[in-house]
């Protein structure tokens, strides 16, 4: 199933503040892909903790597992990934409009969940250095599930994964940030999650 547009929304980035100018103390996670000098990064409240992180063998992807809020011990995100892929364009806008199916196919390639996900929302933002980002909210529901699961959703399978995706192009590489959350995590941290997603930037 190709991603389909929807009018539904997930959370609001204005519901949670990560602005250090307002006294917020943040943790910053960073990743520099192999052969690059650019630094991809995202922020979250310093009291939160990740269970583990690792860089894959290619040096082009880093993942963080189970970002948790320590007081409740509840997980905020199941997994966060940042990857980099060489491309022959200078800016993400060179791919066209963010909702174009051709670009959606590029950023979901090789990820079965994202390829089958419904497109819940698209936004465009620009950082202080003029770098543009295409941001997406995706929701994945499996094609089949048990009768017990489907009967609560009028015969359809429930959402298994919500993904906050952000993409940009810097120095000939397509950077992709993916933060995955399940319904329980989203139920607990729907207001906080978008701020972490929107904190993703690539610094040159």
Structural notes for this entry:
The chain is 15% helix and 40% strand. The chain has helices at 101-108, 112-116, 147-150, 183-189, 193-198; strands at 26-31, 39-45, 49-55, 61-69, 74-86, 118-126, 132-140, 161-170, 173-181, 201-203. It has 204 residues and is mainly beta.
Q: Strand order, main sheet: write it out.
A: 3-4-5-9-8-7-6
From the N-terminal CA to the C-terminal CA, the straight-line distance is: 36 Å
**For the report, how would you describe the main beta sheet?**
7 strands, antiparallel
Low-confidence stretches: 1-16
Beta-strand residue percentage: 35-45%
> Would you list the SSEs in sequence order as H and E?
EEEEEHHEEHEEHHE
C-alpha geometry: globular
Count, helices: 5
Briefly note the structural class of the backbone: mainly beta
Q: Report the strand count.
A: 10
Q: What kind of assembly state do the chains in view correspond to?
A: single chain
Mean pLDDT: 83
Kindly state the percentage of residues in helix. 10-25%
Radius of gyration equals 17 Å
What are the salient characteristics of this protein?
204 residues, mainly beta, 7-stranded antiparallel β-sheet, 3-stranded antiparallel β-sheet, single chain, disordered N terminus
Secondary structure blueprint with pairings:
Blueprint: E1 26-31, E2 39-45, E3 49-55, E4 61-69, E5 74-86, H1 101-108, H2 112-116, E6 118-126, E7 132-140, H3 147-150, E8 161-170, E9 173-181, H4 183-189, H5 193-198, E10 201-203
Antiparallel strand pairs: 1-2, 2-10, 3-4, 4-5, 5-9, 6-7, 7-8, 8-9
